[in-house]
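#struct-queue
[09:14] JT: dropping the first one here, sequence first, then the C-alpha cells:
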Amino acid sequence: MNHIPLVDLKAAHEEVADEVRAGFERVLANTAFIGGDEVRAFEREYADFGAVAHCVGVANGTDAVELALRASGIGPGDEVVIPANTFIATAGAVARIGARPVLADCLPGTHLLDPQAALDAVGPATRAVVPVHLYGQLAEVTGLRDRLPDHVRVVEDAAQCQGATRDGRSPGSGGIAATSFYPGKNLGAYGDAGAVLTDDENLADLVRATANHGGVAKYRHDVAGFNSRLDGLQAVVLRAKLARLADGNAARRAAAARYDDLLADLAAAGRVVLPTTADGNVHVWHLYVVEVTDTDRDDVVGKLNAEGIGAGVHYPAPVHLTAAYRHLGHARGDFPHAERAADRILSLPLFPQISPDQQRRVVETLTKAL
C-alpha cells in the first residue's frame, strides 16, 4: 500500500540534507553547541523574513509562549484569555507562570478566536489575550488590541503560521509573538525549537535574559529565569529550511487550491465544509482542515488511515473538555463553536511535496469513507 503521510518529513529532509550535513560539521568543528554564530545568523534571518526587528531563539514553542507572557508582565494571579480550541500548550504556558486561563469561543468557519468573545471574557484580573493563529492564518490582532483596556496586552501564539500575514502585518509586529519550530511546522527543526518575535528591543532583551537563567553574561543573573536556549544544530536545520520556506508556502497554497477543486462536489452535496480564509489573510496552510457534516468523524479517520491516508484531527477536544483543565469549571455547551469544530474537523495530508495524484487519491478515499 502506498502510504500518504499527513506530513512528509522525509521529503523535507532530502531537500536540505547536504546543506544540513555541512552545517553540522561547522558546529561540531567549532563546538558551538548552545548559541553561537549559527543561532545568531538564524535569528537575524528569521526576523528579516518575519518583518520584525527581533527574533530570540528558544528551546520550544511552549517556552516561547511562556517567555512572551513573562516579558509582558504576566504572572501569578493574573488571568489570560485564550481560545477554547487550541493545542493544550497555549493553556499550559499560562498555567506554568501561575496565571489562570480564561476561555473564549472561536468563529465558525475559520475556527480563529472570536474577538468579541475574547472581549466579553476580559475581567478585572485580565492582563493578556492570546490570539492563536490557527492552521496557517492569523487571528485578528490589530482591531482586538485597539478595543482592549490599556492594561491588557496581546501576546500572539504564532506556532502555525510562519510566513503568514494579515492586512500586511506579521506576527509580533507592534507587539510580541511566540512561534514553534516543532518538526511538523511549515518551518520545522529536527527536534524541539521555538522563538519569540517582537519589534520592542527591551522585550527582546528581557526574553533573551529570562531564557538564559536570567542573564546575558555568565554568572550574572539580573532577573529570575530558566533554561530555554536554541542550540546550534537546530539553527543549522532552520537556516537551511528558511531559505526554502517562501517556495514551500507557495506550494502549500497551490495544494490547498487543488483540494478546494477536488472537494467541490462533496462540498456542494453538503458532505464536507471546506476551510475558509479570513479577509486580509495570506494563508500558509500549515493544515488543510475540513469539517465532516453527516457521519462519525472518527470512523472516517479510521477508514482513511486503514487505506494508507495519514489523516489526523487538530484538535479532538477543546481545552475545557480535557481532564487537565476540568478545574476551570466549564461543561459541554459553554463554547459551542469550539465543541462543534472538535467533533467534526479532519486534517488531510498537506505538505509542499504532495503531488496532484496523491491528492486525488486522498479525495477518492475520503469520498468512499463518507
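[09:21] JT: and here's the second one, same format:
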Amino acid sequence: MSVREIASGLKFPEGPIAMPDGSIVLVEIARGTLTRAWNGKTEVIATLGGGPNGAALGPDGAVYVTNNGGFEWHDRGGLLFPGDRPASYETGRIERIDLKTDKVERLYDKCNGLRLNGPNDLVFDRHGGFYFTDLGKGYGRLHDRGAVYYATADGKQIKEIVFPIDMPNGCGLSPDEKTLYVAQTQAGRLVSFQLSAPGEVVPSPLLSNCVCGLPGLQYFDSLAVEANGRVCVATIALPTGAITSIAPDGTYEQTPFADPLVTNICFGGKDMKTATVTLSATGKLVQMDWPRPGLKLSYAGW
C-alpha cells in the first residue's frame, strides 16, 4: 500500500479527525495544541497546555479533547517518547474547543470528587454522549489504576462505568453501538464490554471479554472501527509499529509503518477508505488507501 505524507515536524501527533474539507484536525501532545494539517501545511487552532491526547467532533460541531495533563519527554536517537507525569502536572481533564471562535472550555476534571488522572481517548455515540478512557499517570515506581467513563457533551453529567482496568487507551463502538471496545496498552490486548443502554455496561463476573492479544512485545494504543465491525488498533513495536485490524472473532492482520510509535488511525473521504495514521515518534501524519471502508462516526460531517 502506498503511504502519503500529509505533515511532518509535529510534536507527538495523536487524535486525528478527518474533516469534510479534506484537512485533518489533530492534537500535538508534546506541543499542547489542537492543530489543523493539510497539504504539508499546519496551523495551531488552540493552545491547550497539558497533554491533549484524543479528539473527536461532538454533536454541536465542536472538538472534544481528552487531555492527559502532560508527560515528561525523552529524545532517543531523534525519536520522541513520553514518560512519567511532569513537574507541571495538575490534573487530567476533558476540554471543548469551539472551531468558530477557538474558545477552550474545561468540561470535566473529576468524577464523584476524584480527579481525572490521564484521559486518553474518546468516542461519541449517536445519543450525544461520549465514552472516554483514563489511562492514568506514571510517577516513579507507581502508576494509577485506569478507568472508563461516560459523560454528556454539556458538561453536566459524568459517571465511571469500568474500574479498575489496566492502562485503557483507545476506545470505539461497534456499528450497532451494543459493544464498547477498549485497547489496553501494556497488555497489548483488545477487550470488549457489552452495553445495555448508553453508558450502561452489562454486568459480568469477568467484567470484560478479551477479543485479541498479540504475541511478543507489542503495545496497543488508540483505535478506529471499520464499517464491517473490524477494529483497527494502532500498535507500538520495535523496530516498526503497525495498524492491527482485528475481526470480532480475534483473527487479525497487520499493516506496518516506518515508526515504532504508531498511535492512532481515523477514516475519511467520501468512500471512508482514506486512512489517516499518526506516526508519533517521528512526528508525521500520513495517509493511505484502506482496503475496506471505515465506520462513519455519528458527528463526523461526512
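[09:30] RK: nice, looked through the second one.
[09:31] RK: DSSP finds no helices and 31 strands in the chain.
[09:31] JT: good to know. The chain has one domain: 3-289.
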